[in-house]
Amino acid sequence: GSNVLKMSSGIQIKPKTAVQKSKTSSPLSCSPEPAIKPQPKPSDKLNPKTIDPFGAYSRPPSAFAAIYAKGGIPCRLVHGSVKHKLQWECLPETVPFDPLLVTLAEGLRETKHPYTFVSKEGFKELLMVEGATEKAIPLLPRLVPVLKAALAHSDDEVFGRGLDALVQLSAVVGPSLNDHLKHLLTNLSRRLMDKKFREKITVALQKLEQYGGKVS
């Protein structure tokens, strides 16, 4: 009726031009089809008239984002006035490392909020639980390729998160990481030529040597 037309357009218009206006107005207005359905405010992502079927919204941007959307990550972001923090649905000590630690490592390559924070902080906090060493070592063959992908990423922030995660992992698993370092050093040496990362990478290499022992 006329009430539906007024709501969809957001302004007072004549009923006969409402359908035409809704096609050209802002994305916030509802198209005629969704207006008939039970949901009065469908997401813009689901509006077939406002998206390219082959665009970014036609599939999840990553495995991590898909898992996060389904509630597969047992922690969420809590916004603070000064800094954000994670709130776990259960104690991190009780969460299986396999596959969560690998999934969080995958999330390090995300570039959108809140995925960036959840993956970085979640990876860090999971490695801080008691018994993390025994739980993380068996996952190294799967973790190292994922961290390598983060270190090879063109985005500076993704690289930084990958480097931090590598050092955190090294501190936990110690010499067990040594056999895998050869797969990661190439990516570090490439960024070593970048002035803004030179000092950070140098410090990271020193820590890898410290945690890995003489063999490293």
From TrEMBL:
Coiled coil: none
InterPro entries: ARM-like, ARM-type_fold, Parkin_co-regulated_protein
Leader sequence segment: none
Domain of life: Eukaryota
Compositional bias (Polar residues): 19-29
A Pfam match: ParcG
Region (Disordered): 15-51
Cited PANTHER family: PACRG-LIKE PROTEIN, PARKIN COREGULATED GENE PROTEIN PARK2 COREGULATED
Name under which the protein is recorded: PACRL protein
Organism: Haliaeetus albicilla
The organism's taxonomic lineage, starting at the top: Eukaryota, Metazoa, Chordata, Craniata, Vertebrata
